[in-house]
C-alpha cells in the first residue's frame, strides 16, 4: 500500500474525477471521498461504503453533483432518484428506505438531525427508485436552513430494508419534519446496509457562523489518465481497485497497479486532472 500526500484546503474544495469517466468504480470512490471531505463521515455516518451510485435529479437543475451548492428554490420539490449498481454482482432487489437529513454545516456532529424525507418500501426498477408501494413517513420537505447559518449539508441516503424491518414506535405515516436520531432509527428498525448516498449544500443569506476549518478536505484526484501519471510530490502512479482504494482524510491508498479499466489507469493522488466541482457534470 502506498500512502499518497494530499492537498489540503481551507475551503470545501471539490473532489475531482475525470469528466470523461463513466465508470461506476470511479464514481463509487469519488462519492466516498466526498463524504469524507465534507465530514459527513464521521459527523453523520461512522463509515460509508456504498455499493451503488445514487443520482438525484431536481427539476430545472438536472443531476446534482456531490456537494453541489443549490438554492432553496432549486430543491423545493422532491427530486427523482436513480440507483446504479457498482457492478453486476450487486443486486438491487427488495425494499429500500430513502432518507434525507440536514447534517448542518461542516463540523457539526449532533445525534439529532432534521429529517426532511423518510420513505419506507421504495423499490428499484430499471435503476429508477419507485415509491409506488412505499410509505412516506416524512414526505419530502425541501431544505430551509436558517438565514446566516451557513451552508448546510443535506444528505440523501438509501438503505436496504430487510424483510425483518419494523418501523419504530412513532414512525407512522406522515409525521412531518422534525429532529430525530438517525443512528437510533436505523438500529431500532433493524435497517439493512447503506447502499448509496449523495448530498448537496443549501445556504441562505450570508453566513454569520464560523464554520470549522476543514482540515480533512482533500483535493485528491481520481482521474482516468491516459498518459499522465501522478509521479510528482511523492505520489507515484499508485492506483487501486475500487475495493482497495480507500480515500480518507489524509491519505489515499490503493494497491499499486491493481486497477485498470477500459479507459485507462485510475490515478489517485496529486497530479491528476483537477477541475472544479461545477465542471464535474
Ligand atoms: C454510462 O454507462 C452506462 C452503462 O454502460 C450507460 O447506460 C450510460 O448511458 C452511460 N452514460 C454516459 C453519460 O455515457
Ligand atoms: C462490486 O461492487 C461492490 C461494491 O462496490 C464491491 O464490494 C465488489 O467487490 C464489486 N465486485 C466486483 C466483482 O467487482
Ligand atoms: C411519491 O413521489 C411523488 C412524486 O415526488 C410524491 O408526490 C408522492 O407523495 C410520493 N409518495 C410516497 C409514498 O412517497
Ligand atoms: C417489501 O414491502 C412490502 C410491503 O410494502 C412487503 O409486502 C414485501 O414483503 C417486502 N419485500 C421484502 C423483500 O421485504
From TrEMBL:
InterPro entries: PEBP, PEBP-like_sf, PEBP_euk
Top-level taxonomic group: Eukaryota
Positions of the UniProt region annotated as Disordered: 231-255
Residues making up the signal peptide according to the UniProt record: 1-18
A family per Pfam: PBP
UniProt keyword terms in alphabetical order: Signal
Listed CDD domains: PEBP_euk
SUPFAM superfamilies xref list: PEBP-like
UniProt protein name: PEBP-like protein
Source organism phylogeny: Eukaryota, Fungi, Dikarya, Basidiomycota, Agaricomycotina
Amino acid at each position: 500500500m502506498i500512502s499518497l500526500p494530499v492537498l489540503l484546503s481551507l475551503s470545501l474544495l471539490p473532489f475531482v474525477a475525470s469528466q470523461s469517466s463513466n465508470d461506476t468504480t470511479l464514481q463509487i470512490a469519488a462519492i466516498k471521498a466526498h463524504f469524507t471531505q465534507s465530514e459527513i463521515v464521521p459527523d453523520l455516518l461512522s463509515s460509508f461504503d456504498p455499493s451503488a451510485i445514487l443520482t438525484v435529479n431536481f427539476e430545472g437543475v438536472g443531476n446534482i453533483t456531490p456537494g453541489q451548492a443549490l438554492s432553496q428554490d432549486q430543491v423545493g420539490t422532491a427530486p427523482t432518484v436513480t440507483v446504479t449498481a457498482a457492478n453486476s454482482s450487486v443486486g438491487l432487489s427488495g425494499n429500500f428506505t430513502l432518507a434525507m437529513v440536514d447534517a448542518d454545516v461542516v463540523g457539526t456532529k449532533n445525534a439529532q438531525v432534521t429529517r426532511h424525507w423518510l420513505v419506507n418500501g421504495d423499490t428499484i426498477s430499471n435503476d429508477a427508485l419507485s415509491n409506488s408501494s412505499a410509505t412516506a413517513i416524512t414526505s419530502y420537505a425541501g431544505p430551509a436552513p436558517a438565514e446566516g447559518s451557513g451552508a448546510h449539508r443535506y444528505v440523501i441516503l438509501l438503505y436496504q430494508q430487510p424483510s425483518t424491518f419494523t418501523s419504530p414506535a412513532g414512525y407512522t405515516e406522515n409525521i412531518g419534519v422534525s429532529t430525530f436520531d438517525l443512528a437510533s432509527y436505523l438500529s431500532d428498525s433493524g435497517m439493512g446496509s447503506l447502499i448509496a448516498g449523495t448530498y448537496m449544500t443549501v445556504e441562505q443569506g450570508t453566513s454569520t457562523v464560523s464554520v470549522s476549518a476543514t482540515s480533512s478536505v482533500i483535493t485528491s484526484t481520481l482521474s482516468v489518465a491516459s498518459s499522465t501519471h501522478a509521479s510528482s510530490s511523492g505520489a507515484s502512479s499508485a492506483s487501486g481497485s475500487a475495493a482497495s482504494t480507500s480515500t480518507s482524510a489524509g491519505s489515499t491508498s490503493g494497491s499499486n497497479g491493481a486497477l485498470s479499466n477500459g479507459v485507462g489507469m485510475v490515478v489517485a493522488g496529486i497530479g491528476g486532472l483537477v477541475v472544479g466541482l461545477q465542471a464535474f457534470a
